[in-house]
């Protein structure tokens, strides 16, 4: 009996150190994950706004420097420079009808826009659902948005053989041929958006996996010791003593 009590007393400092290590690791883990999560949410919101600009701006294609009257073209409008300060535009969002040749592209961009704004709305679910679940939902939505936007960017050059392009870029314009026009900033921004969606979705999956590693089985924590061996807390409270996994 005496030897058993002595062994328990000798082991108490080591067990206390492991408990403190568990609490310290959990605190740093949550703090870093929260900071990265806030950055991810801000970037998601910013690009959701940029996606609206990509959809509505008539700046996907524009004329290069030439003596002829210039202009720009988007999914919903074609604008030609005139003698007035404001260019003369045909089409627009008021009719909710894209240019006939770009209808499929506009639908894909709209689906992408819906997906990214749905992921923004899903940020409210952090108050009601586990963080890992919300991150995974948003990641799949962002992957879907990126896929639709990538498909739209691929189909867009194939739609250049249309009367609007020929009136703006000359008769040499056709599928995958810009004529006297060039790619403008809205189309470039859409291409960069594909990479942005891939990055945001990957980061969301990483954050979800970190949350899964942090909260396992009703609050248990898995940690790694400095020697690299995996440990796990066997109790519900974070103060429980880790045991070998």
From TrEMBL:
Q: State the source organism's domain of life.
A: Eukaryota
State the GO CC annotations: plasma membrane
Main localization of the protein?
membrane
Picking any one GO biological process from the record gives: sensory perception of sound
- UniProt subcellular location: Membrane
**Transmembrane stretches, start-end:** 38-61, 105-126, 138-157, 185-208
How this chain sits in the membrane, per its record, is: Multi-pass membrane protein
Could you tell me the keywords of this UniProt record? Membrane, Transmembrane, Transmembrane helix
Q: Which residues form the signal peptide?
A: none
* PANTHER family, per the entry: LHFPL TETRASPAN SUBFAMILY MEMBER 4B, LIPOMA HMGIC FUSION PARTNER-LIKE PROTEIN
This protein is called: LHFPL tetraspan subfamily member 3 protein-like
Q: Which gene codes for it?
A: LOC114458677
